[in-house]
Amino acid sequence: MVRFLRTQALICTVFCLVSLAVAFAKKSSQTTQSSSTSVLTGQAAFTDAAHESPGIRRHITVADLPGPAPDQSVDNGPSMIPRPANAWPIAPKGFKVELYATGLDNPRLLRVAPNGDLFLAESQTGRIRVFRGVTADGKPQQTSVFAEGLRQPFGIAFYPSGSDPKYVYIGDTDGIVRFAYQNGDLKARGAAEDLAELPGGGRLRGGGHWTRDLVFSKDGTKLFASVGSHSNVDDSDTHPEEYHRADVLEFTPEGKFVKIYAWGIRNCVGEAINPITGELWCSTNERDGLGNNLVPDYVTHVQEGGFYGWPWWYMGGHQDPRHEGKHPELQSKVITPDIIVNPHFASLEMIFYQGSQFPAEFKGDGFACEHGSWNRAQRSGYEVIRLPMKDGHATGEYEDFLTGFTQGDGQVWGRPVGIAEAKDGSLFISDDGSRSIWHVIYTGK
User: Fold this and answer.
1) Which end of the chain is more exposed for a tag (fewer CB within 10 A), N or C?
2) Is the confidence at residue 367, as pLDDT, over 90?
3) Domains of the chain (ranges plus CATH)?
4) The dihedral sign for the CA sequence 334, 220, 418, 445
5) What are the pLDDT digits (tens) for 132-175?
């Protein structure tokens, strides 16, 4: 009996110790997880390129914005250098970055065709280039010039959007054109068909922001074209060159103008359709000249008929001091964006991740390229960010995903512009600083 009781006591002791160890491990795991997903808020959320690092999350709100400080406004454009031999984009643990292509001419927006070919706009040279496949050493299996002689092409959209498109649409700086297209075409089948004129050329006056992105609505009935402002903050009431600018314009697939879909968006560079909600989203450059931490760039869903403030107001119903007293009736109509990113990031192309190569928690999240700008004392941007979503809606946070495009002394060698998801779920990112395309792959190692 004594032996039995001792045995039972020993079993109870071992059981208790194991239970305590499991509880401690679980608590430790929860603490680590909580720490790894901690979010910088308030003034701590404002950053610069030297403090960007994969996995850091930030959440900036309207309440965090400082007052206007025009005296802080600086001209601090990047000091571009060739990529140093030891410089490479930095991704989160488990991700691998390969150099897919280099020696390109002003590589800008990227889009993947339904058959998996990668289309690139080389904007300044007026060219659309196609890349096919990946070799064992990470390079394209085949490349081709699809079309040339265009006028600063940027946006690329396939229509219809299913597996068998008939056209590829291009957003030139002054108009929308399309080419007849079949899956696998490496060269255009004929001349471009002019569909619509856009502000930026001809009778509608050019200059200013020149990128024109294109995206079709989820049902394919609407073609959205983004047109940035001509100026930083000119009063569009009195400057005719701002006609139909700082807007998202709606067209039919045949190129007939329908209406201004949304307005007061200074420069909606990147457009994307949220696959869960069907909403149009914009990655937007805000205005300059009001200080280091004003006005933040943003990424947001775009409300039909919505007003986003430019040029008289900005997020939170704040009036731009350069337009004091103008349009008070619009103050209550200014829409606060879903995701406020750091000021002067120069937020460019964006996508929603739909693949299965990355960890499951990435599915449905957004990604956006932050090109980096000039109007801030501390260099900011020069990275790719992740936009966490929940059931298709933004949490308001953003996370550093791909960094390392600057040197410690503030010099810049890389500037992310375009981003596209390959059919296998990896990501391609164009970089007009190093004139390259990077390939981001999840290996889990």
Assistant:
1) N
2) yes
3) 60-442 (2.120.10.30)
4) positive
5) 999 999 999 999 999 999 999 999 999 999 899 999 999 999 99
